[in-house]
Amino acid sequence: MSTIVQLQSITKVYGIGDIIVNALAGVDLTVNAGEYCSIMGASGSGKSTMMNIIGCLDRPTAGRYYLDGIEVDTLPDNELARIRNQKLGFVFQQFHLLSQLTAWENVMLPMIYAGVPVQERRDRAREALVRVGLEQRLQNKPTQLSGGQQQRVAIARAIVNRPVVLLADEPTGALDSTTTEEILDIFGELNASGMTVVMVTHEADVARRTRRVIWFKDGQVLESNLSPKDVALVNAG
Amino acid sequence: MDWLESGNMAVKTLTSNKLRTGLTMLGMIIGNASVIAMIGIGQGAQKLASEQFESLGPNVLFVTPGSPGARQRTTFLPRNLVWDDAKAIAAQVPSVASVAPQRQSQFSVTYGGKNRTTLVMGTTPEFLIVRDFDVAKGRFINNVDLERNTRVAILGSEVAEQFFEGKDPIGSKIRIRNTSFEVVGVLQAKGSFLGSNQDDAVYVPLTTTATLLTGRTSPFGLDLSFISVSAVNEASIPAAEFQITNLIRRRHKIITEDDFTVQTQKDILRIVGTITGGLTALLAAIAAVSLLVGGIGIMNIMLVSVSERTQEIGLRKAIGASEQDILMQFMIEAVMLSAAGGIIGTGVGIGGILLVAAFSPLQAVVSPVAITLAVTVSGTIGLVFGVFPARQAARLDPIVALRSA
């Protein structure tokens, strides 16, 4: 089983004036291909910082980060942008769709930055939207879609460039429980077809749908391979 | 991301907020329209002026007394031009067709109870030919008038209208400087020339002017205000200029600086061109300020747009847009705004010129140079004023941008 995300002694220090915050204090973590894991922890535990570093939106202060075999912690901004484009897919709590574009155009967006030819772009975007069950909504703008449908468009956008890992930051945080189940079903299906999924969540119900839980506390990994069954336990303790 | 994609994206963004896009473009539209219109009006004035000069008569040269160099001379006093100079030019210069000596003064002219201070011009029959005037009624000065110092006057159309109000003036007596003159003719209207009305004048024989009105003031003969000369044809103008200069230098016994000036229509046109050209540049410069203000308007709106679209920028960066991609996107939006404003403004400006031309004697001059200039300048303004907001956008930290609500 190949390693997708490999973090070695990652630290992240924020300095705001004289106050220094150790957001991450020596994190070692490995995620293998095909895994479906969730990152949990109290707010301020460092899980969001972890997500930003895994997502190449931020660089660690110290430590090594290998993504799909490439050491990305030293890459310049433009290379990181390319890595995000080619190897990563993002799903956010707030969907972050562009309101002036249709669902189809939103999904095509990452391929525009990847330089995919127009026809292939259209075909692949349609495929991705079919995969999340939105083939009837290609020409709708985000305002004409429900929250769940918008998040599906966002998922289609995240997978359209065939990333090595799909990162989701509280993907169901803005959705009701029924829609949450639908979205989690899609993540489950994607994982079943081989997609590596890493999800940040604070909801035990959501984490329970994943197959591995990584528990953060005070900028460190408290438990790196918790079974979802035990989540309630840790939560209580 | 290529240019076509960026352009497509920019069009989508700009058309999604039409009111704002329109208002932003308005600044550029006004700026461009005023530049185009001002340059057009300036050039129209230039054209009008040169056409008025052409109406002076074909192939005209002017010999005027004095020159910049003569004023500094001390050993020889500068001489005035006299009638004999004019006669010599007519007799001895082969490239000259006709010569009209002219002596002018402002005098009070009265008829009935009416009094009017007007230009009184003493001249010879040749004046009609050289200056391309026509007689509307009666006759002009003839050689008998010159020989006998007759007290006859020919009225410019304006003077005739003022004094006689449509009645036939031929045979009436008018008084010039308290001397009675008989009106024998009226000239055809010629229009104004550089703002001075050529029809507001009274023509009398040159000899009569000298004896009865101005007096003889030069020891060298009957002195003149200037001499109008027409060359045989356009090609002979330089030759005429050269030959006249030589002749007068010899007659005035000049060995240093000339004490007279020979000006061709081209010389005068050049002077007028310099003046109207300067005027055009001034108008354009004033208009250019509004173009600048339009540019600042674009910068302002682009800055607002960047802060409004922080999340969009963060998202684009997260899914793989590089700093250059974001920079280019915002630059293209700015350039599109200003260039579109420039093109529309050009249309409005041309419309303005045509409107001015329809209601004034100015001619419509739509200068392709002005149009290229305005569109290029407004595009450049978009670039210049777009850079700052676009850099702001490109440098946004994606994490911060995504979290801003």
Summarize the structure.
The complex is a heterodimer of chains A (237) and B (405). Chain A has 237 residues and is α/β, with parallel strands linked by helices. Chain A has helices at 47-54, 77-87, 103-114, 118-131, 147-159, 177-192, 204-207, 231-236, and strands at 3-16, 19-32, 36-41, 62-67, 70-71, 88-92, 165-169, 196-200, 212-217, 220-226.
Written overview of the protein:
- The complex is a heterodimer of chains A (237) and B (405).
- Chain A has 237 residues and is of the alpha/beta class.
- Helix content of chain A is 35%, strand content 30%.
- In chain A, helix 4 crosses helix 5.
- The mean pLDDT of chain A is 91.
- Chain A has a 6-stranded mixed sheet, sandwiched between helices.
- Chain A has a single domain, classed as Rossmann fold.
- Chain A starts with a strand and ends with a helix.
- Chain B has 405 residues and is α+β, with helices and mostly antiparallel strands.
- Chain B has 2 domains: 3-52 and 279-403, no CATH class; 100-222, no CATH class.
- Chain B is 56% helix and 18% strand.
- Chain B has 13 helices and 12 strands.
- Chain B has helices at 3-16, 18-54, 83-92, 126-131, 143-148, 157-164, 206-214, 237-251, 265-308, 310-318, 323-359, 368-394, 398-403, and strands at 60-65, 96-111, 114-123, 135-138, 152-155, 173-176, 179-187, 192-193, 196-197, 201-205, 226-231, 260-264.
- The longest helix of chain B is centred in the C-terminal third of the chain and has 44 residues, at 265-308.
- The radius of gyration of chain B is 33 Å and the shape is elongated.
- The interface between A and B is medium-sized, with 27 and 24 residues.
